[in-house]
Design a protein that fits this description.
TIM Barrel; 11 helices; 10-stranded mixed sheet; 324 residues; two-stranded antiparallel ribbon; alpha/beta
């Protein structure tokens, strides 16, 4: 089709036409709200690098989740920030750990809200790594049991879905086996299947107090230069029993979201991470961009790349606009 016989602008000239031919639609149903839980009561601690985001005590976390649910957001992802840390991250799988408490209260107060839990050890270990450290090296296989125990404790507390984010090899299979053996075969796993060793995680590490105390996470998180490896990682997690495959971060890896979507028939999630959120917020505060428009363009772009669902700190702001 060539000009002048074909004129693409014909179908752009009115709002009605643009709506009729829109290829990608962003919905409140696509959004998952991440929340940070801390101990105590009536706590709402602002996270300086993430404007408008907070660490909540369980009572305030439930109030925020209730507001999100009333806006139509179908799910929240709970991250825990414990009071104490140790080499084995024991608070991650403690029966009365902060995530377990938050999950029980969320399901008691808002039973129809889907509660997803982040399964990792980095917030709970004193060294800040996502697995057991032996002589300065992360011991992959020794970490699997603790990750499975963490996921199991979340599910037993009432979590609707567990989401391992550690990037240890074999952890999806270990978690699937632990859930199945404990009559929890109905609990799905959202795997952080393709998680890059990214500089975009800085604000999150402040929020969750999870920065590594030595070295970095390059031995277990993926090299940002790699794409074929992403397909291998996603395929392995699918074979081990993952129900949803996640790509993290989202914006620098839209091509990876697209490739995972093309290679797998499982639902694909994307995490619009803290650094992506913070950059938009900072530029908007400086008056350099229209923050709301850039937010919606960003989320639409992630959907267009192939994500079926988006974890985003923008969830409540975006839901307000979508509902209006």
């Amino acid at each position: 089709m060539l000009f002048p016989e074909y004129r693409p602008r014909r179908l752009r000239q009115s709002k009605a036409f643009r709506r009729m031919i829109r290829e990608t639609r962003l919905s409140v149903d696509d959004l998952i709200l991440p929340l940070f839980a801390v101990s105590g009561k009536n706590i709402k601690q602002e996270i300086p690098s993430m404007p408008g985001q907070y660490r909540f005590s369980v009572d305030n976390l439930v109030r925020t989740a209730q507001a999100a649910y009333e806006m139509g957001i179908p799910a929240v992802m709970v991250f825990g920030v414990p009071d104490t840390k140790d080499p084995l991250g024991t608070q991650a799988y403690a029966k009365n750990g902060i995530v377990q408490k938050a999950v029980r209260e969320l399901k008691n107060r808002i039973p129809d809200l889907a509660v997803i839990t982040d399964v990792c050890l980095c917030q709970y270990t004193d060294h800040g790594h996502c697995g057991i450290v032996e002589k300065g090296v992360i011991d992959n296989d020794a970490s699997l049991d603790l990750l499975a125990r963490t996921a199991l404790s979340h599910a037993q507390a009432g979590a609707d879905m567990v989401a391992p984010s550690d990037m240890m090899d074999g952890r999806v299979a270990e978690i699937r086996e632990a859930l199945d053996e404990n009559s929890l075969s109905h609990i799905p796993i959202m795997s952080y299947a393709v998680k890059y060793c990214s500089a975009y995680y800085g604000p999150f590490r402040e929020a969750a107090d999870s920065a590594p105390q030595f070295g970095d996470r390059r031995t277990y998180q993926m090299d940002p230069a790699n794409a074929l490896e992403a397909i291998r990682e996603a395929s392995m997690d699918a074979e081990e029993g993952a129900d949803i495959l996640m790509v993290k971060p989202a914006l620098p890896y839209l091509d990876i979201i697209c490739r995972v979507r093309e290679e797998s028939d499982l639902p694909v999630a994307a995490y619009n991470v803290s650094g992506e959120f913070a950059m938009i917020k900072a530029a908007a505060q400086m008056g350099w961009i229209d923050g709301q428009k850039v937010m919606m363009e960003t989320l639409t772009g992630i959907r267009r790349a192939g994500a079926d669902m988006i974890l985003t700190y923008f969830a409540m702001e975006a839901a307000e606009l979508l509902n209006s």
